[in-house]
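Posted in: Protein Modeling Q&A

I'm a second-year student putting together a small comparison for a lab meeting, and my supervisor asked me to include a predicted structure for Diguanylate phosphodiesterase. I've never done this before, so apologies if this is the wrong subforum. The sequence is pasted below exactly as I got it from our records. If anyone can share the structure token output, I'd also love a short note on what stands out.
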Amino acid sequence: MSLIENKRVLVVEDTTIAATYLARELTTLGAQVVGLARSEEQAIAMTDEFSPELILMDIHLADGGNGIEAVRQINQKHTLPIVYTTSFSDDTTLEQALETSPYGYIVKPFDTKTIKVSCETALKRFEIEQKLSHVNDVGVMLNNQFDGSDRKGDRGRVEKRHHLSSIILDQLSEGVAIVDKHFRINDANRSLGKLFCQEPAQLLGKLITDFGVLPSHFEACLKMSEQNKVYRHKIALRNQDNDLFPAFITMSCLQRDSEEQQFVLTVSDITDLARAEKKLEALAFRDPLTNVGNRNYMKLLLEEAHFADFIQSLVFIDLDGFKQINDRYGHEIGDALLIACAKRLKSELRETDSLIRHGGDEFVILIQESSDVHQLTERILESLSKPYICQGITLTVTASIGIADLNDNDTPEELLKRADIAMYEAKKQGKNQTVKYSESQETAIEYRLLIEQRLFRAIKNHEFFALFQPLVDAKGEIVALEALCRWHGKDVKDVAPKTFISVAEETGLITPLGLKMLREVCIACSLLEANNLAHIKIHINVSPSQLSSPSLIEQFVTFFEDYNIEPSCIVIEISERSIVSSTTIRLINTLRQYGFAVALDDFGHGLVALSELTDNEATMIKFDNSWLVKSENPQMQVLVESLVTMNKKLGKQVVFEGIETFEHDVFARKMGADLLQGYFHDRPRALTEIIKRISPDHKQHA
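Accepted answer (user: helix_wrangler)
Welcome! Here is the predicted structure, written out as tokens:
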């Protein structure tokens, strides 16, 4: 039977969703949820009214309430186990919470298993502590029985009392001993003999210090007795077989005014409590989803001087493409994938390596032997890139890995920061690779921060403009232009698009930048029409973050109505990674209904199952340069030709972009490309320059 079954539980949560979730899970585990409180006042009132046997307490409560303060007030009137359930894990909050002596501290999000283990551990610990509570009175009882104040005439009554005391002591489950000032055992009950694996009579005359009680404990007891207090201490004792066991001892003085100073010692075996505390510690330092160490554990290891001396390197791992999978298939599939990735990581590690889940899709490895760390990361990359099957769905992810070596006087934060910078550089270089930290990367990060700081001002000062790269048909005729954003400012000259576009996406500035490009495209459409070139379509790129905005469609429609532009003149280009979200697919389909054409950019990078090509309204597929650089491989030719044929049969136009050489052009044409794009045909130019070359008054020369 589970310890939580039929236990009355009060749930204190400020959000209805979280409270309902906990109530449902607890009910499934067999508990009786007696109430759901949202505020500090409700928590205190419901505790008084329902007398729960366990409370799950959030820290941030409704109406500005504080769960820690609620626990302080509850503890003044009630004795019961309370477990914190919170999103806060910072040192200050944790320190304040620990002052209230909680029976558990769970950091959200958590699963049913974590709830069950935390609740049962708390209940077991409370049960054991309640059993120990009556032990504190044993010393007082014995003091009354053996205080030496009885007169000689009362010998019969004294002997009767002593006999009664012996019976009581032998019935106690706790071990009890009378110890003299030389630490010799003068008397012992059966339970003490059982704890020390000897008969009580065999213990008489032996030194209690041989079993692990220290002389300093007796000195502390004497000091406490001056204040009429009982000395209590948690300790590891040793039995006759030399086996250690955790114990809780209480000690008080007998005959304080007598030369024959004696002590009453009680010993309680707290092995079950120690196990419960270890479970709580495991929850505090272990990630409940993947069962590897968490950030608290990493911090503990890096700040523990003895262990930290052996750390040589830190490896930072970020899964490429995980977010898209999580958005596409949901958190259940995402969690299953994280568990599978963690298992693969553990299988590649050596005994001296420590694996940490840093958060989300990030993992950290603490390395004690760094001589072959690059071989280790190569094995990790190979292992993680193999396909996963989660609930019948085949998934693929890769990893970007950064390595940083420990320097003298490094703080944990500095070491982690350098590994994170190296990981970012691995992503920047194309992902699915390992990069070791160098100072030049930090310079690049500083440059990126400079870009971030200047970006907002650049948008405001109209420092961004559009260049247009032609897309040509098989005859070499320009049939479309792709609008490409460029930045040329006073302080920052000619920043590469791959640099500022990613920064704009991360900072949220992609929306105003996107609107700027949309305005440029509308002006371009008007100019083309004015020069009798309305047949040339304009391609505009839309980022994943823009596609997640519910106002995107309204912005597009409003702009084109204001400029009197037909949506059919526009092709919206989206990356393949954008359409793994069902929300994005619906948005794309809506854009198609308005008359916009949609092109799927960077096709074939593994995020979209081929069967899903029929689930979206993309009218054009763009193969990037990565297919062209492998064009000499016969197997690659077969694959590309098959993909082109398949897309054409699905009614989609096929574009090859990144054509830089004559060989690239020949390959693309041979594969059946409908349109061609790249520097081999033309570089990005100002629209006025292109119009001058292709208007009816100027013949185009290939």
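A couple of things worth pointing out for your meeting: The two ends are 83 Å apart (CA to CA). The first strand starts at residue 8 and ends at 12.
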